[in-house]
Amino acid sequence: xxxxxxxxxxxxxxxxxxxxxxxxxxxxxxxxxxxxxxxxxxxxxxxxxxxxxxxxxxxxxxxxxxxxxxxxxxxxxxxxxxxxxxxxxxxxxxxxxxxxxxxxxxxxxxxxxxxxxxxxxxxxxxxxxxxxxxxxxxxxxxxxxxxxxxxxxxxxxxxxxxxxxxxxxxxxxxxxxxx
Length: 179
What we know:
By secondary structure, the chain is an alpha+beta fold. It is 27% helix and 22% strand.
């Protein structure tokens, strides 16, 4: 065998060893980093709260309930015909955050929204029949005086936006899935 063939053999062997070592280094680094990367995923308890199903069959017309979703209160209200009519008749030019009632609900009789005031994060009152409902018969934040109407839209006070409507869908006529 000639000397050049031996040198060529050595180069090929050296390249093979270099690529093998590099591959093992990449695999080892990936195996070492995987637990760190995987720890950035949400925990199982958080994923369990990513969505919540709400049975609405027992909610009478005019009644509200509060459920927790992702640590936030969600207001579900079975609106009366009067509340729906009042919400639909509002002149959008009078609203600080103009939004039609129909864009806030999937079914007019059901209002689903996050019960956190958009001013400083307080929880407005108005869920119970004995609660103050503000000037627009919806919800009232007693901390700073924000008044929301029967569609959860800001009407008066320092809050800059309407109460948030979370992503939700009707699974059937008696079940709402939030999240």
